[in-house]
Amino acid sequence: MPPDTETTFTMELMYRRSLGPVVGGFFTGLRDQRVLASRTAEGRVICPPLEYDPETGDGVDELVEVGAAGEVTAWAWVAEPRRKHPLDRPFAWVLVRLDGADTAMVHALDAEGPDAVRTGMRVRVRWAEERTGTITDIACFEPEGT
Amino acid sequence: MTPDTETDEGDVRFVRQLIGLDYAVRTNPVARAFGEALAEGRITGHRCPSCGLVYVPPKGFCPICTVPTGSEHEVAIADRGIVTSWTVLTPIQYAGQEEREDYALASLLLEGADGTVGQQRLVEVALDEIRMGLRVEAVWAPEGEREPDDRGYGLGTAITGWRPTGEPDAPADAYREHVL
Question: How many degrees, rounded to 5, is the angle at CA A9 between CA B161 and CA B57?
């Protein structure tokens, strides 16, 4: 196809989102290299935190700290990262249940290849060098012991 | 993504998030021919061989009769017409906004066309003097600066705006069927 028969354009929209005390607290914690979770009345620890108990719908405002390492519960390999992905090389999207949490969070895992990823493997947070209070303060996860 | 929480200290209360969408559009031959004519200072349309309606920009088909149209159905459209409706926009200074002053965009019924062309900038007219039936003419961009809209949505950058001709307004019958 001749090059002049295809055109590309990018549309970008800047959003400014109000976070509220629970998600705001989570992001404040990340900036300080602490991972916070919400704890429901029944004692379930939800990370990343929700503002409500998914079982009862009741509001949740108690934040507790969980570990910065945990276990992969599911994953998918990304062979060709796209422009906005957190890593510019092949990586895995993973669900990680952090130590002390009852739910899993999605993030990127920096791994050698799909053969280096398995459900149940231990991973830990790799903190961003400059942290500003966003989810990307966790640069990615990395296999424990590396 | 370039998140930013605006503060380095205290509780995090806001997050900025840039949503970006990359599009790749394959230009169709009809839009391309329309853009090439615009670069030469000509506006073109297609006349449906069945119902006779003239579409600008041409679509390559008549959506009413569902018959294809091509270069053999091309007709010349004047670079002048009348305002059928308009909006005055007050720009909010969000990221990427280049406008600073209030401005007007109009739907125009061009001479020779049976449908309006939307989102056309009105120039050289006070915003409170814009009205239905106002006759306007194109202000063309210099040759070489007439970039087509390859998506086939509009006139690209070929026409920088439309200014009043100073002639008497068109009667209501001229645009009654074309108002929103």
Answer: 45
pTM: 0.65
Q: Which tokens sit at A137? A: 């303060």
Query: Which of the two residues, A13 and B64, has the higher pLDDT score?
Result: B64
CB nearest to A12's CB, from B12, B20, B26: B20
Confirm if A48 and A112 have CB atoms less than 8 A apart: no
pLDDT score recorded for residue B152 = 65
How far B136 CA lies from chain A's nearest CA (Å)?
31
Asked if the C-beta of A88 comes within 8 angstroms of chain B's C-beta atoms, the answer is no
Which residue on chain A is closest to B4 by alpha carbon? A132
Shortest Cα distance, chain A CAs vs residue B135, angstroms: 34
The ipTM estimated for the assembled molecules is 0.74
Q: Per residue in A64-120, pLDDT tens?
A: 999 999 999 999 999 999 988 999 999 999 999 999 999 999 999 999 999 999 999
Interchain CB distance below 8 Å, A7 and B25: yes
On whether the CB atoms of residues B79 and B138 are closer than 8 A, the answer is yes
Structure tokens at B123: 């120039």
- B16 to A12: CB separation less than 8 angstroms, yes or no: no
Quote the tokens at residue A1: 């196809």
CB contact under 8 A, B20 and A5: no
Read off the pLDDT of residues B114-167 as tens digits, 9 standing for 90 and up.
999 999 999 999 999 999 999 999 999 999 999 887 766 789 899 999 999 999
Residues of chain A contacting residue B16, judged by C-beta atoms under 8 Å apart: 14-17
* C-beta separation of A75 from A53 below 8 A: no
Chain A residues with CB under 8 Å of B35 CB are: none
Return the pLDDT at B5: 52
Instruction: For residues A125 and A140, give the distance between their C-alpha atoms in angstroms, rounded to a whole number.
Output: 6
Rounded to whole angstroms, how far apart are CA atoms A111 and A115?
9
Which position has the token pair 């050289």? B124
d(CA A137, CA A141): 11
Could you tell me which chain B residue has the CA closest to the CA of A32? B9
